[in-house]
Every structure is written in structure tokens, then in C-alpha cells.
Write a structure and sequence with these properties.
With 456 residues, the protein is an all-alpha fold. It has helices at residues 21-25, 29-32, 41-52, 60-67, 69-101, 108-117, 122-126, 128-163, 180-195, 204-228, 241-255, 261-266, 274-300, 316-348, 357-378, 382-410, 421-453. Helix 6 packs antiparallel against helix 8, helix 8 packs across helix 15 (357-378) and helix 16 (382-410) packs antiparallel against helix 17 (421-453). The longest helix has 36 residues, at 128-163. The radius of gyration is 22 Å and the shape is globular. The relative contact order is 0.18. Keywords: Membrane, Transmembrane, Transmembrane helix.
Length: 456
């Protein structure tokens, strides 16, 4: 499913066309859409689960080390329910905007801009384009950061296979073996080559293979949990507040499907059944994350590392799985690189020679891959990157922005309710997310600084 490109002059212009509830309901946005191959409830659910349970789940067990198993399970469930409800409000708000603007298909940035542009307050209206740019920037930071995590997974896997040892370290283990950063630097050119592929259709089939390999790795983790620790001994129940904030960022990163829910709804045959897909999909995501994280932590306790495959023994099976993870994540990296680059190049393309636009696209693809590689080299810690992206980017995408958009949409119609209960609901829920955003970002940013300085 290819995202719609965003830009400084989005078309069409968002404005209120339906001024009453009757006028809104007179527009059937489903019939107005042109979906040659719409998805049903099961297909939408599958896309949602696939959008959430990517490479992030390979580090979920480390998140449980941070918070402790009991605190981890409770917060895993809490943030799963919290995220599901916020995403429900986001999609419901988008559907109201379709009817209000007579525009039947939107992207996440479209919805954000439309919500502000259709607000009765002039100041809010003027902020609509700015809000759109902020959404674009945060989405790019999140997705490029995820690509950096993928580069780390690839490089850590290759490093362990080259050194042929169960031990792991950023430093080279053994005579003449280089630092992890050297492996990251060496991977930049191969990753540039695969990211030069301009059409997503050539890459998408490989993501199915990657999903199969990841699923095999997760089943293997459960096997080793039962084998290594059948009595579930040595599990820490609760840790410190600081470490719990690290956990929140990592677990939100592992579960979030905020970037895909609106494209999924846009492509459904019956979008009114989206809540069914959301409930089923988020239930699978929450259960899957908790299940794998719990058993991964049980198997390796405080020795847990991300990706989980580096914990596997150096048997033939273990080595094959480590190698397959490196290969499939390598291909999947190109798939995940595609959406943020499309956003960035839409803006950049206006400043380059239009007669050589494809040539410049190749150049800028190489530049962005190199920048992502530099990010991974500077901060070679999957855990710290996941935690930062979860608190800085995804608390906005999955919690704060959906609530803010919802508040703008209901402000005039249907209104804030008796005693402004809808306002207080949004403010209360947003307060939790803002607290996580500020405190979690500070904690995880300090972890990144420590990694950069070589203190971790």
C-alpha cells in the first residue's frame, strides 16, 4: 500500500463544505472512493498487525528487563488499550472530516491539516499548514530512526557470525576484529544499492519472507525459554521509575501502528467496520508483544539483547537463523526507507532540475541512506534508539495528535458535551501522553548521549 505524497501545497484545499449534520450524512465517502482492490475486515487486520509487529518486536524482551516482568505486563496492556482508543478516535475523526470536506481519501498529514483548517477559530486555521509540516517531520524522524535500528540489527548479526562467539560487545571480540561501528560503516554501500530501487512493488514480496523469519525467531525464543528456565526463576517484578520510562518508549515502538491505520481505513470495502479490525488487530499486537517479550526475558533474563537472535546459541540452526534475519531485514530496510523518502523528496524535488529529476532522486536516496547510517554509527544501540523513537515520535503519532485532531473535529459539531466532558476526556488522556513525551524523551535522550560518548 503506497502512501500518498505530501507537500507544501496539498491538493485539494481543505475547507468546510457541509455545515450541518444532515449535509454531512448526505455524502457517502465510501461510494466516492475508487478502490479497485478493497480489503475486508480480515485483510485490514492483517495489514495492521504487519504494520506494528516489525523489527521492534525483536527487542521487546529487553524492554521487560528495563521495567520488570509484572510492571511490564501491566503497562504493556495499559498502553495497548490506550493506543487502540486513541487510534479509534483518530479514524473516527478522519471519517467526519471526509464528510465535512467532501474529500473521501486522506493521509495522516491530510487529516491533521484538515482538522485545523476546518476549526472555527482563525488562529487554529492559520496553524493548519504548520501542523502538517510537523507531522511530516516527526513521521520521517520515526521511520528513518527505524531504518537505523534495522542497520544495527543487520550489523550486530553479521558481527556475531564473523566472530563466531556467543558473547556480544560493541568492541571487537578477538584479535583484529573491528568495532561494531566498522560493520555499520561497511553496510552503508550495500544498503544504498538496494535503496536505489524506486518501485515498492519489487520489494514488497520480500517483506512476507521477513515476517516468516521473524515469526520463526519468536517461536525459537519461546522454545529456549522453556528449555533454559522452565521454572520461570530469576524474573524481576518491578524496577526503577527511570528504567520504566525506558520501557515505555521501547514497548510503544514495538506496538505502534499509528502510521498505517488511516491508509488501511482508506482501502477498506466497508470502512464502518474498521473498529472491528482495530479491536482484533490491537488485541493480537498486545498479546503478541507481551507473549514474546515475556518468554524472551524468561529465557535470557538480564543477559537479554536486541535483536533476540543474538542470544541464540551458535549452533547450525542458530547461525542460519541469525543469517536469515540479517538478509531479510536488509531487504525490509528498503521497504521501510520508501515512505519517508517519498515525503522528503516531494519537497526536495521542487528545488532540482526537473529535466533530471530521476537522476537527482538517485543521488538523494544515497545521501539519505548515508545519513541514516551515520545516525546508527553515532548511536549504535537498538534499545536506546527504540526508546527515544517511542517517546519522542510515537507518543505524538499514537496519542497526542489523535486526541488533538479529535478535539478540533468535535469542537463545533457535535460539541464538547455537558460540563465539557469531551474536552476533559481529551485533556486528561493527553496529559498522560504529554508526561510520557517529556519525561520519556529526556530519559531516552540521555541514554543516547551516553551511547554516543561510549559510556554504555
Amino acid at each position: 500500500m503506497e502512501p500518498v505524497r505530501t507537500g507544501p501545497k496539498p491538493r485539494p484545499v481543505f475547507k468546510v463544505v457541509a455545515f450541518t449534520e444532515e449535509e454531512e450524512n448526505a455524502f457517502d465517502y465510501v461510494k466516492d472512493r475508487q478502490n479497485p482492490h478493497p480489503t475486508g475486515v480480515l485483510g485490514a487486520t492483517a495489514h495492521m498487525v504487519k504494520g506494528a509487529l516489525g523489527g521492534g518486536i525483536l527487542g521487546g524482551h529487553v524492554a521487560y528487563v528495563k521495567a520488570g516482568v509484572w510492571m511490564g505486563l501491566v503497562l504493556n496492556l495499559f498502553f495497548g488499550v490506550y493506543m487502540a482508543y486513541c487510534l479509534h478516535l483518530l479514524v473516527w475523526s478522519a471519517q467526519q472530516l471526509y464528510k465535512r470536506t467532501r474529500i473521501s481519501t486522506m493521509t495522516y498529514p491530510d487529516v491533521g491539516e484538515a482538522a485545523f483548517a476546518c476549526h472555527p477559530n482563525r488562529i487554529v486555521k492559520k496553524m493548519s499548514r504548520c501542523f502538517r509540516y510537523i507531522i511530516d517531520i516527526i513521521i520521517c524522524i520515526d521511520l528513518y530512526g527505524a531504518c537505523a535500528c534495522y542497520q544495527l540489527i543487520i550489523s550486530k548479526s553479521i558481527k556475531q557470525l564473523v566472530e563466531n562467539t556467543q558473547l556480544t560487545s560493541m568492541e571487537g571480540l578477538g584479535e583484529n576484529y573491528p568495532h561494531l561501528r566498522i560493520y555499520l560503516a561497511a553496510m552503508i554501500v550495500p544498503i544504498i544499492l538496494i535503496c536505489l530501487i524506486r518501485y515498492l512493488k519489487y520489494l514488497a514480496p520480500f517483506s512476507l519472507g521477513a515476517n516468516a523469519v521473524v515469526f520463526t525467531a519468536l517461536c525459537t525464543a519461546v522454545y529456549y525459554a522453556v528449555k533454559n528456565n522452565p521454572s520461570f526463576l530469576g524474573l524481576t517484578g518491578v524496577t526503577t521509575f527511570w528504567e520504566t520510562l525506558e520501557f515505555v518508549g521501547m514497548i510503544v515502538f514495538s506496538m505502534s501502528c499509528a502510521g498505517v491505520v488511516i491508509p488501511i481505513e482508506n482501502n477498506m470495502a466497508d470502512p464502518k467496520k474498521f473498529p472491528i479490525s482495530l479491536v482484533i488487530g490491537m488485541s493480537i499486537i498486545v498479546f503478541g508483544t507481551a507473549f514474546v517479550s515475556f518468554f524472551g526475558y524468561t529465557a535470557y533474563l538480564e543477559y537479554s539483547e536486541a535483536p533476540i537472535t543474538v542470544n541464540f546459541p551458535m549452533t547450525v540452526y542458530g547461525k542460519v537463523l541469525k543469517g536469515l534475519i540479517a538478509i531479510m531485514i536488509y531487504v525490509t530496510h528498503a521497504v521501510n526507507f520508501w515512505p519517508p523518502f517519498q515525503i522528503c523528496y516531494y519537497y526536495i524535488s521542487r528545488c532540482v532540475n526537473q529535466n533530471r529529476i530521476v537522476f537527482w532522486e538517485y543521488i538523494w536516496r544515497a545521501i539519505f541512506v548515508a545519513l541514516v547510517g551515520a545516525l546508527a554509527i553515532g548511536f549504535p544501540s537498538i534499545n536506546a534508539l527504540m526508546g527515544f523513537l517511542g517517546t519522542f515520535c510515537l507518543t505524538n503519532m499514537a496519542f497526542i495528535w489523535p486526541l488533538l485532531i479529535h478535539l478540533c473535529v468535535i469542537w463545533e459539531r457535535p460539541g464538547l458535551g455537558k460540563y465539557y466532558w469531551r474536552l476533559w476526556r481529551c485533556v486528561g488522556m493527553m496529559s498522560v501522553a504529554i508526561f510520557i513525551f517529556f519525561c520519556g524523551t529526556v530519559v531516552n535522550a540521555s541514554e543516547l548521549v551516553a551511547v554516543f560518548k561510549g559510556e554504555l
